[in-house]
Structures are given as C-alpha cells and as structure tokens.
Amino acid sequence: MNDSSAADALLVASRVLVAVAARSIASVDTDVTLPQYRALVVLHTRGPQNAGVFSEILGIHPSTATRLCDRLIAKRLVRRSPSPNSGREVILSLTKRGDSLVRHVTDIRRAEIERIVERVPARTRPSIVTALTAFGRAAGEIIDEGDAPLGWS
Predict the structure, then answer these.
(1) Please, are residues 119 and 109 in contact by the beta-carbon 8 Å criterion?
(2) What is the tens place of the pLDDT at every residue in 31-41?
(3) For residue 35, which of 18, 50, 13, 48 has the smallest C-alpha distance?
(4) How far apart are CA 115 and CA 138, in angstroms?
C-alpha cells in the first residue's frame, strides 16, 4: 500500500464520517453548523481557551473566531469571560447547554459509528483502531483515553 492508496481510503472514510457527523448534528433540535460544532468540541476536549489560542487551534483568523463565538454565545452554548490573569484577555468556555449538546451529539455519533463498525469483519477491527489512532495523533487530536471524548470523529 502506498501513500496515495492510504489517502484514497481515508478520503472514503472521511466522507462516511462527515455524513455521520452531519446526521448526528441534524438529529438534535438546534441550528448549529458543522464549523460551530467543531468549535464546541475544541472547548469540550481542551477546556476553556483564550480567544487567540482558540482561533489558532481551529486554524481560523481571530476575527472569524470572534464572529463564530458571537453566534455560539447568542445560542447560549459558549460564554465569554475576562481572564483572571489579564484584563485584556478573553476566555471562552462551554455553558452547561453547550456541554450537554456536545455529549448528546457524541452519543448519537458513537452509536451510528458502532453500527458501522459491527459490519466490519472482527479480525479487521484492531487494525482500524491502530491506523485511525495513529492518524488522529498525526493530526494533533487529543486521543488519550483519560481525556474527554473527542466528539469529532
């Protein structure tokens, strides 16, 4: 197997996972977009973040992150607080409602992924776990089992 065939296989898997993600978000009674959900997952998995670090993690311009957060604050999913360390810094964190949304969507997503995995031959599953764990680590995702669930598969 070469890098190109690995990339092709991951592209197919990513289409499946994006479809699962879209369905899981659509199944909850909310108007959260996939990019907004990704932002919620960052705060869920990494905890409260200052606005600058948050925009870096998401790979978006700080002004884009501000607009994204404004929308999530209006939906009562994120809160913006002054930093205890600096009056100029802003800390972003999930509200209880935001945390509950991420957990609920993650549960729905996990159940659908488990149904798909059940259709994969049992002897192949350990290889999938090894490969996808390595892929996630290479991408910089938090994968330690002691951490909060990823919610973004």
Answers:
(1) no
(2) 898 899 999 99
(3) 18
(4) 26
pLDDT digits (tens, 9 = 90+) for 75-112: 999 999 988 887 788 899 999 999 999 999 999 999 99
11-39 core/surface letters (b: 16 or more CB in 10 A; e: else): eeeeeebeebbeebbeeeebebeeebbbb
List 94's β-bridge partners, or say none. 78
pTM of the model: 0.78
138 token code pair: 């290479």
Size of the chain in residues: 153
SS3 59: coil
Tokens 């790979």 belong to: 59
Q: Which of 89, 88, 106, 85 is nearest to 40 (CA)?
A: 106
Q: How far apart are CA 153 and CA 149, in angstroms?
A: 10
Q: Among residues 90, 81, 78, 20, which one has the least CA distance to residue 53?
A: 90
